[in-house]
């Protein structure tokens, strides 16, 4: 495939007195330099040619234009800039019509807002999602959208990054008319011919006055106060509001200049790099060897064993995606509870007015509860979610092997157990795989697809297909204790416990982690999940724990008191009367002090910065070990795991991207310094040392091979 040239990605054709301009830059007509040059040349030609009376802008293929070419950000900008291209469209003295189909997003919508008339086909999606990439609409979107749709609606659109349907865009004033049919070019030619026939004028968005500026500024002030509370360190939302303030207060050209300056600030921000890494990582993560080598098996009916927290959540996820679900439980009482667990999710939606009673009945009609494994004879894919006990799971898989039809995919939702051993309980290990959902399974996006030694490639491909159908973010993981996520989590939780025992309070640690951008700190998470769960795991693992490894008992002292967190009214925090926000508990601090004293530890102070250096160094070091053992295919798989399943701040791109942005030499130096206190815990990963020695970063391992 040759390099894109302006005349290959933007083609023009004369249809009577209309110049039809088509952007043809697959897959999504992104506005790379060649497209910008092509559009600028087409507009110049239209302006210069007295035979041209009007211009039609359309996109070829599945989209109008999905925005700037994200791959160009961070590289030197090549002229013409997109604001210049938009200006040449708006300046045109002949009517310019844009017909939108598929995605008209970001810079793509900004091109359309610069046109004089806009049509949308019914399936078009319009939006200014730059905020999701750490940016703001930088080609006049912040100046033109408020003029067309009002200050409040435009600002909310830009702050949310949401896509509007064509119908909603019409109602909001972003487009002039919806068009029937699916041929954007034909629809546009027809419409523009009509405009020309009646000598319709050129209408420039920039000439629209913003109604009631004082009221608009008051709305912006309210949005700013609300946004500041929600953004957890995100940079671009407040800049968006500043741009819109400029749109209200300044003449158009000055507003544009302000937008440009703030756009460049966002472009330079590390948050932009982190968010764009996340965007591409989420698209790369599905590209795994097995899914590329084999076609998925067909599946239409899903079975679930176990109707507890996870089984019910997985059932809801499958029902939501339209599948019939058969759930098997141990006995009549348990299956009644399993069904109730599923039904209560929909009852909640009905109560909130988000689902109609009939829709609930229709979904529940696809659900079958049973106490007999024989009812799984017809399912194509079954997911086991029974107690986390190897012997129980092996017994379940023996039963599945007995009843399931040949070729059915047999999956386990185990969090930690050896899936090779579970597979070995069947006569068909090639069909056995791990599907590790996160709680609540109908809401959390992450799905670790755990690949045991004997599974066949088409089963792995089927798991990725299932993830797509259930709208999950799949990450391929190898078999080990905890797979990618929980294995790494265990290590940085230990690092947090060490810091706790050495002098920081749980509240300081949580505050440091929140300041870093997490929604909650680790002790808040423990209170939410239930301290009994971690305690049970620690007791189970006590026998195999390395006696030389540092073990902090503070969490056990809390759990022994029955202080499991929110559900018991107290844990690390106090929750008076079922409050969800915890209050600091002096008794917890006294327990922490007593434990330190028992171990002869004199507490010292930790800055939030030091807390995070330790927390992150532990995360990155274990991440590097997970990589060198092949548990994760690429650093980006670890990043996506933490972004989708563990609340890692998206604008930091994930732990491995964060490490690259710090400099791996700095992270390694920290680990080596901490190792002087505890060489057993802080053993630098060989891969990390190798990358530092070679002057490379984790991103170099993300390159497609
Ligand atoms: N630039 C470069 N590549 C892009 C792109 C873009 N704007 N948008 C999508 N792609 C690539 C994807 O990386 C993917 O590549 P791959 O096949 O090699 O993995 C391919 O196009 C297809 O994308 P999806 O897999 O996401 O396809 P979908 O059909 O699921 O979704 C979409 C299509 C809704 C357009 C989605 O890709 C999307 O949301 N894209 C980003 C839109 C966006 O954020 N635009 C704003 C850009 S910033 C901007 O315009 C700044 C301006 O204000 C100055
Ligand atoms: P749970 O205790 O809420 O539910 C387990 C269910 O399995 C119970 O309803 C029980 O009656 C049923 N069950 C037990 N033996 C059975 C058998 N032989 N046949 C049929 N049903 C049987 O447990 P939970 O939390 O749903 O966990 C289930 C699995 O999911 C475990 O492997 C766990 O490690 C894993 N997991 C749990 C997560 C969580 O946050 N709770 C997150 C991810 C995975």
From TrEMBL:
Subcellular compartments: Peroxisome
GO molecular function, one term: (3S)-3-hydroxyacyl-CoA dehydrogenase (NAD+) activity
Predominant place of localization: other
Catalytic activity: a (3S)-3-hydroxyacyl-CoA + NAD(+) = a 3-oxoacyl-CoA + NADH + H(+)
This protein's record includes keyword NAD: yes
Keyword Lyase carried by entry: yes
Positions of the 3-hydroxyacyl-CoA dehydrogenase NAD binding domain: 302-477
Domain 3-hydroxyacyl-CoA dehydrogenase C-terminal: 482-575, 612-696
One Pfam family named in its UniProt record: ECH_1
UniProt keyword terms in alphabetical order: Fatty acid metabolism, Isomerase, Lipid degradation, Lipid metabolism, Lyase, Multifunctional enzyme, NAD, Oxidoreductase, Peroxisome
UniProt pathway annotation: Lipid metabolism; fatty acid beta-oxidation
Single GO biological process annotation from the record: fatty acid beta-oxidation
Taxonomic superkingdom: Bacteria
CDD domains reported for this sequence: crotonase-like
Database matches in Gene3D superfamilies: 1.10.1040.50, 2-enoyl-CoA Hydratase, Chain A, domain 1, NAD(P)-binding Rossmann-like Domain
Family the entry assigns: In the N-terminal section; belongs to the enoyl-CoA hydratase/isomerase family.
Protein name (record): 3-hydroxyacyl-CoA dehydrogenase
Source organism of the structure: Acidovorax soli
């Amino acid at each position: 495939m040759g390099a894109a040239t302006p005349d290959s990605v933007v083609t023009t054709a004369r249809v009577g007195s209309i110049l039809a301009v088509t952007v043809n830059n697959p897959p999504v007509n992104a506005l790379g330099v060649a497209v910008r040059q092509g559009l600028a040349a087409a507009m110049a030609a239209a302006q210069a040619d007295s035979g041209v009376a009007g211009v039609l802008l359309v996109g070829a293929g599945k989209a109008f234009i999905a925005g700037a070419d994200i791959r160009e950000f961070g590289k030197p900008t090549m002229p013409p800039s997109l604001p210049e291209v938009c200006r040449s469209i708006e300046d045109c003295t002949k009517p310019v019509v844009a017909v939108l189909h598929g995605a008209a997003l970001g810079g793509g919508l900004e091109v359309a807002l610069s046109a004089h008339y806009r049509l949308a086909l019914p399936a078009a999606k319009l939006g200014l999602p730059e905020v999701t990439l750490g940016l703001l609409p930088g080609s006049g979107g912040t100046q033109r959208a408020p003029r067309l749709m009002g200050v409040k609606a435009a600002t909310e659109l830009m702050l949310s990054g949401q896509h509007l349907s064509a119908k909603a865009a019409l109602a909001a004033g972003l487009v002039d008319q919806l068009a029937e049919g699916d041929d954007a070019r034909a629809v546009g030619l027809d419409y523009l011919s009509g405009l020309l026939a009646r000598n319709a004028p050129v209408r420039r968005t920039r000439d629209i006055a913003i109604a009631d500026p004082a009221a608009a500024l008051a709305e912006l002030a309210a949005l700013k106060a609300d946004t500041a509370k929600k953004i957890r360190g995100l940079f671009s939302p407040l800049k968006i509001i500043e741009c819109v303030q400029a749109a209200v207060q300044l003449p158009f050209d000055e507003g544009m200049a302000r937008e440009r300056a703030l756009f460049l600030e966002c472009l330079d921000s590390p948050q932009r790099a982190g968010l764009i890494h996340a965007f591409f990582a989420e698209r790369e993560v599905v590209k795994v060897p097995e899914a590329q080598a084999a076609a998925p098996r067909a599946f239409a009916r899903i079975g679930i064993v176990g109707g507890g927290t996870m089984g019910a959540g997985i059932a809801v996820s499958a029902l939501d995606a339209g599948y019939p679900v058969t759930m098997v439980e141990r006995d009549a009482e348990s299956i009644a509870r399993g069904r109730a667990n599923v039904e209560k999710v929909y009852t909640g939606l009905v109560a909130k007015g988000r689902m109609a009673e009939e829709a609930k009945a229709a979904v529940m009609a696809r659900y079958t509860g049973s106490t007999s494994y024989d009812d799984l004879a017809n399912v194509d894919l079954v997911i086991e979610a029974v107690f986390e006990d190897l012997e129980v799971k092996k017994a379940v898989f023996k039963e599945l092997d007995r009843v399931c039809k040949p070729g059915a995919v047999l999956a386990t939702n185990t969090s930690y157990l050896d899936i090779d051993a579970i597979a070995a309980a069947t006569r068909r290990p090639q069909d056995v795989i791990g599907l590790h959902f996160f709680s609540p399974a109908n809401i959390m996006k992450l799905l670790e697809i755990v690949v045991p030694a004997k599974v066949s490639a088409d089963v792995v491909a089927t798991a990725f297909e299932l993830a797509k159908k259930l709208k999950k973010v799949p990450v391929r993981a190898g078999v080990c204790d905890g797979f990618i996520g929980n294995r790494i989590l265990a290590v940085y939780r230990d690092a947090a416990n060490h810091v706790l025992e050495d002098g920081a309070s749980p509240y300081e640690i949580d505050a440091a982690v929140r300041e870093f951008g997490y929604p909650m700190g680790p002790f808040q998470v423990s209170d939410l999940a239930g301290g009994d769960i971690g305690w049970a795991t620690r007791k189970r693992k006590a026998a195999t724990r390395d006696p030389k490894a540092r073990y902090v008992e503070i969490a056990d002292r809390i759990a022994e008191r029955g202080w499991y967190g929110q559900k018991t009214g107290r844990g690390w925090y106090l929750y008076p009367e079922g409050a969800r926000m915890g209050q600091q508990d002096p008794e917890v601090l006294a327990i922490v002090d007593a434990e330190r004293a028992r171990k002869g530890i004199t507490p010292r102070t930790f800055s939030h910065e030091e807390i995070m250096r330790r927390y992150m160094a532990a995360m990155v070091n274990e991440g590097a070990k997970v990589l060198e053992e092949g548990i994760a295919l690429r650093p980006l798989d670890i990043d996506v795991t933490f972004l989708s399943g563990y609340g890692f701040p998206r604008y930091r791109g994930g732990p491995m991207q964060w490490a690259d942005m710090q400099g791996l030499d700095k992270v390694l130096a920290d680990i080596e310094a901490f190792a002087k206190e505890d060489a057993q815990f802080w053993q630098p990963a060989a891969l990390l040392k190798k990358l530092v020695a070679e002057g490379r970063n984790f991103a170099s391992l993300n390159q497609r091979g």
